[in-house]
Structure formats: C-alpha cells, structure tokens
Amino acid sequence: MLQSFLLEHQIKIGRDALFDLLAAHKLLVRKRKRSIRTTNSNHWLRKYPNLIVDMVPCRANELWVADITYFKVGQKHVYISFITDAYSKKIVGYNVANTLETVSSVQALEMAIKQNEGKLQGLIHHSDRGVQYCANEYTRVLLKHHIHISMTENSDPRENAIAERINGIMKEEYLNHYILKNCKEVQKQLEQAVILYNSQRPHMSCNMITPNIIHENNIKTQKLWKNYYQQKTIIVNPL
Fold first, then answer.
1. Is 51 inside any structural domain?
2. Which of 55, 66, 169, 206 can bridge 127 by disulfide, Cβ–Cβ 3.0-4.6 Å?
3. Has residue 42 been placed in a domain?
4. What's the domain count of the chain?
5. Is residue 102 part of a domain?
6. 36 located within any domain
7. What's the confidence (pLDDT) of residue 56?
8. At 128, which CATH number?
9. Range of 101's domain?
10. What's residue 239's pLDDT?
11. Where are the beta strands (DSSP E) in 48-191?
12. What are all long-range contacts of 26-32, with beta carbons under 8 Å and residues at least 24 apart?
C-alpha cells in the first residue's frame, strides 16, 4: 500500500525497518488484554461437533467463522457480532447490541446470508459453543439455508483463530481511535470500519490482496494458510 509513495519520494525501507521506525515513535497499535467473557457454553442447548479441524478452505463461502467481542463505550460495553469468510478474510456480517442477546448474532447472520444469496452450497458455519450460537433462533436460520453447523469443542482459541483475530483487528486498528458515546455511534463507525477493512486492508495470507477482491472474484493463488493447529502452505492453480 505504501510502495508507490515510497518510490515517489525515493525512500528505501523494508517492512522490519518500517516497524522499528513506527515503534520508536510509538505509532504501533497497542495490544490489549481481553478482560470480559462473551461466551457462556454452560447451557442445555444442543452443541455441534467441530467439522474443521483439518480443513483448508479453497474458495469463498466454503467456511464462515463467527464470534462476539465487546467494545467499551463510556463506563459500559456494547457487544459486536462478526461473521467472516475464512478464505477471503472478508467480514460478511456484523451487528452491534447493548446486550448479549441472540437477536444481535442472528442479524449479523442474516446480513451475511443476504449478501451471499445463491452462493451458500456446501457452506460450513463455525463458532464457539456460546448460547447465542446454540439457540434455536440461530440454528433455525442456518438449517433453513442448508448451512452445516460446526462448533469448537474446548476453550482453545485456536479452534476459532480467524474469528478471534478479526475481533482484535477491528477494535485495535479501527475502533479504538474514536470516542464513541453509545451503541448507535458504534454501529455507524463500525459500518465505515468494515468498508475500509474489506476494501483496503491487504492480507499476507491472501497474497496481499484485499478481502473484497478475493471474495468477489474467488481468486485462487498460492496461499499461505494459517490453520487452527498448524501452519500449512498450499498451492492452487490460478483460474
């Protein structure tokens, strides 16, 4: 993203040197420790097995990963539901709510389905075993659209690593820079953040291509896939 600017100004600097420079001027994003629990898996609702332990997605809309994170607003917190396509890293659904009720997650799911209507054949939806994802209202929508249900089987964050990563990126790189007063303001800023993330943030695991381009064109290239338990490198012939 910076290469044309650097060349224009005859600046020669590599990635590591750039990060050292940013660190020296305290411009790197600070990582924050997670302190609020958003998952309650101690419930009577049906839990589903993990279908993706050895899975390596090869196309868009083959695997969606979902998770809920919190965001501090004044002295309170709001809760953000994300659904991300694991292949393209595109955020396909999201919603903000004042509580952890199931309806917020259902709205994020319905957004993702509407945006990808007609492209859901063989899709797997993966999440933790939280009550929001096990609730009848949520699983009913998945089953209605013939989406396979997969869930984590323990508390290991690697079982839903991409979703956890997206939570951190959106909060630390896009939302924490603003002073937001209520849920409505968070929702408005989140809409802009998702647009920027999907259209302007290239990913190393996607050959430095932005999520929108990968997702919309279903581009197949040499791809470095960070699996949940191990790192794999796969090569797929270009279209």
1. no
2. 66
3. no
4. 2
5. yes
6. no
7. 86
8. 3.30.420.10
9. 63-234
10. 42
11. 63-73, 76-85, 91-97, 124-127, 148-151
12. 29/172, 29/173, 30/172, 31/168, 31/172, 32/171, 32/172, 32/176
